[in-house]
Amino acid sequence: MDKKNIDWENLTFAYTPTDKRYVANFKNGAWDEGGLTDEPNIVMSECAGVLQYAQTCFEGLKAYETADGRIVTFRPDLNADRLIDSAKRLVIPEFPKEKFLDAVDQLVAANAAWVPPYGTGATLYIRPFMFGISPVIGVKPADEYQFRMFCTPVGPYFKGGVKPIVIRVSDYDRAAPHGTGDIKAGLNYAMSLHVIQEAHDQGFGENMYLDPKTRTKVEETGGANFIFVTKDGTIVSPKSDSILPSITRRSLLYVAEHILGMKVEHREVLLSEVPEFVEAGLCGTAAVISPIGQINDHGKVINIPSGMDEMGPVLTKLRETLTGIQMGTVEAPEGWIREIKVK
Ligand SMILES: *Cc1c(COP(=O)(O)O)cnc(C)c1O
Q1: Taking the complete model, does pTM exceed 0.70, yes or no?
Q2: Can you state the angle between helices 313-326 and 247-254, rounded to 10 degrees?
Q3: pLDDT in tens, 212-259
Q4: Is 307 in contact with 293 (CB distance < 8 Å)?
Q5: Looking at the chain, which terminus has fewer C-beta neighbours within 10 angstroms, N or C?
């Protein structure tokens, strides 16, 4: 199979339409067969549920070319499960797990020429999403839904090396107690846009959101979970019912404990204990881990000892191990890698 003629190393995180996308429709109480299509545009009622009341949720995962030239996805079963959890909370009909996995396989196989070559640092980002498509004017769930999945090649997250970022403690909340912080809903992002724009205007890379109830505990950023390292090398990640359960974070904690033999704690983290950590990072599918060099709490600066030049040694080791698993150079735990059969 010939790859597309793309300058892979210089891709950014932007949408490039590929050859095929997957679409399934829910009507009269059931999902149809679903399948691939060339059509990237969606025609719907001006009164569609998604447009009026934001009834939509999504996922994000990647396909990788491994060192030995296979194409794989990383733990797509967890994306299928999480999409089901998100859908339930938004009264969207569940998209069956096996159908989801089959859709990922079909989509990636059909777009194999768009999977960036091993070693370029680029990857194929896959975006599954579901939304209410039938008209809704009184506040209620839509009767009809669409499940769609497209993919787009994206560049290496860190161009020219991994540079630590400076973040601020946000005065806004991203989630309410008992709200929707733990599902991947578009609405959680809509309200974060103003907050991230304000952070950028003030020269910060990201926001640290605190727990909405007491504002004393660390939650997450708009789109990534936190991971910290203590002086004695323990990995710590905040636990809360309003944090989105990141698959990257769950995988990193597993790798730390079971492959690297580190001590791991998934627990509540007070903002007041952050100055004691020696390394800090953000984790998510896009970058795996991005390092934090400094946290600004309303003018009070917390300098993370690993500094502003590079990622600390413990997070570097963790990141290298997880990307090694994704790229096939480190042996994966059972069931983590799903190989795509390309015809
Ligand atoms: C998607 C997302 C993450 C990262 O999850 P991954 O499964 O690791 O990509 C973290 N926080 C929020 C709010 C998210 O939406």
Answers
A1: yes
A2: 110
A3: 999 999 999 999 999 999 999 999 999 999 999 999 999 999 999 999
A4: yes
A5: C
Length of the chain: 343
Q: Residue 289 Cα, ligand 1 centroid: separation in angstroms?
A: 12
Q: Which domains, from first to last, does the chain contain?
A: 8-154 (3.30.470.10), 165-327 (3.20.10.10)
**Residue 270 DSSP label:** B
Tokens 């497209």, located at residue:
150
> Do residues 101 and 338 make contact, with C-beta atoms less than 8 angstroms apart?
yes
Query: What H or E segment, with its residue span, contains residue 313?
Result: helix 313-326
Nearest-angstrom CA–CA distance, 81 and 91: 15
Q: Which of 58, 65, 63 shows the shortest CA–CA distance to 125?
A: 63
- Tokens 């997957």 belong to 22
- Ligand 1, from 13, 244, 318: best to mutate by most atoms within 8 Å of Cβ? 244
Residue 53's φ and ψ, nearest 5 degrees, are -125, 20
Residue 150 in tokens? 């497209």
Determine if ligand 1 sits within 6 Å of the CB of residue 248.
yes
